[in-house]
Amino acid sequence: MIVLLPPSESKSNRLRGRPADPTTWSFPDLIQARAEVAAALAAASARPDALEVLGVSAGLADEVARNLLLDSAPATPAAEVYTGVLYDALGLATLDAASLRRARRMLVVVSALHGAVRLGDRITAYRLSAGTDLPGIGRPETWWGRHLSPVLTAHAGAGVVVDCRSGSYLPMWRPSGAVATRWVQVRVPGASHMAKHTRGLVARALVQLPSTPRTVPATATALAETFEVSLREPDRLGRPWVLEVTST
């Protein structure tokens, strides 16, 4: 099983330490694609109109400036870089040792800059959204749609793909073929804040399971012990199962 998570808009960095080494990250087949996006982001962030190009307000100028330090800023585990509602609900710091090991293996963050990383990969804070039209690259959601498919398809193997992404991060990888038959999107009725919180709780519940469900219905059954769930089969080949989840 793999659980796909979105990145957070808010990110943090350690103040000291060695810079990131992309050759040590998960999914090494993405090294070249990552380097091209990072170079394009740095170039865009150095422009006088960087805020306009990246589609952010003047209040986020300091975050854009961090894009110029991707090669030199202290590297920080992705588990600490990504913060906010979903990651607070995931609560990595409060997991027992076995659940934390499963989290580091199962959870994959789909990133506009890096494509995909695991929580133990040591990255740096950045500012880039998947829907940004980045000069030289285009929209990361489209760019990574070409590069992630073979990598994540191989990584998924014969396991269930639990998709906790939303918005512009969804097109970055849409499982196809046999993997699509084991692909389930987690949807949460209501406001986006509660949706993020519930998806974090779902990811936490999955990594706490002592044994990993091998089918989508079995995954829904396991989550039904903690949440109110409703599972809907795909309406056609290549579409995901849909699991509506409400926190009780």
Question: Can you walk through the features of this model?
Answer:
- This protein has 248 residues and is α/β, with parallel strands linked by helices.
- It has one domain.
- The chain is built from 10 helices and 9 strands.
- It has helices at 31-45, 50-54, 61-65, 78-81, 85-90, 97-106, 140-156, 177-180, 192-207, 216-223; strands at residues 2-5, 76-77, 107-111, 115-118, 122-123, 161-163, 183-187, 227-232, 241-247.
- The strands form 2 sheets. A 7-stranded mixed beta sheet has the order 4-3-1-6-7-9-8, sandwiched between helices. It has a two-stranded antiparallel ribbon with strand order 2-5.
- A hairpin with an 8-residue loop joins strand 8 and strand 9 (241-247).
- The longest helix has 17 residues, at 140-156.
- The two termini are 24 Å apart.
How would you summarize what this structure contains?
With 248 residues, this protein is of the alpha/beta class.
What does the largest sheet look like? 7 strands, mixed
Q: Could you give the distance between the termini?
A: 24 Å
Structurally, the number of domains stands at 1
- Percent strand equals 15-25%
Strand order of the largest sheet: 4-3-1-6-7-9-8
Instruction: Determine the structural class based on helices, strands and strand pairing.
Output: alpha/beta
The shape is globular
Radius of gyration: 18 Å
| Helix proportion range | 25-40%
Number of continuous helical runs:
10
Q: Runs with pLDDT <50, length 5+?
A: none
